[in-house]
Specification:
The chain is an alpha+beta fold. 43% of the residues lie in helices and 19% in strands. A hairpin with a 2-residue loop joins strand 2 and strand 3.
């Protein structure tokens, strides 16, 4: 199992990033909470990782913090929650926010996340209550330079990759005053608005 990678960030396009380690490029999928704290392209980066082996693919998931990786690993043990849904959950809510929802039995907040229906939210609360210890969420956002048009397009594509329908993703992005914002900040604001 690949547990950690340290290398040079070569590309980032939510939810995927490319990390070069010793001349090998690793394609890593990461939640938006990790994208918010990524350094600029060309900078050194360390990620906590989890490798999912399927019959048709080996998929590497990367996280900025150990708390995110632990929550991801706990989520994929819940019946009906696979790696993609776990990534979407981590993209829409912080580790601390998720822990608070579980403690408060707040199914309403969980059902606002894409892909999480009422039954899944109830199952998450029941199965995660004993496993979850409240930990700190991710740090502050760090946008990267991009033109507003491309940032908007990247944000919309990332929201679609996270499970939103294209029309809904477009509406969410258009609701953000995106002048001079990077795609990561547009996505963050769109997800915050969706959670309200």
């Amino acid at each position: 199992m690949i547990g950690r990678l340290r290398g040079i960030l070569v590309a980032k396009q939510p939810p995927r990033l490319l990390l070069e380690v010793g001349g090998v490029g690793y394609d890593v999928e990461a939640p938006m909470s990790t994208f918010y704290v990524l350094p600029d392209i060309g900078a050194e980066l360390t990620l906590q990782t989890h490798l999912v082996v399927r019959e048709d693919a080996h998929i590497l998931f990367g996280f900025a913090s150990e708390a995110e990786r632990q929550l991801f690993r706990s989520l994929i043990k819940v019946s009906g929650v696979g790696p993609r849904l776990a990534l979407t959950i981590l993209s829409g809510i912080s580790v601390a926010g998720f822990a608070q929802c579980i403690q408060d039995n707040n199914t309403a907040a969980l059902t606002r996340l894409p892909g999480v229906g009422k039954k899944t939210a109830e199952r998450l609360i029941v199965e995660m209550r004993d496993r979850l210890e409240q930990e700190e969420g991710a740090g502050s956002a760090e946008g990267f330079a991009a033109s507003p048009a491309s940032a908007t397009a990247e944000a919309q594509a990332a929201l679609v990759a996270l499970g939103y329908k294209p029309a809904e993703a477009s509406r969410m992005v258009q609701a953000i005053k995106s002048d001079n914002l990077g795609s990561e900040e547009i996505i963050r604001r769109a997800l915050q608005n969706a959670a309200r």
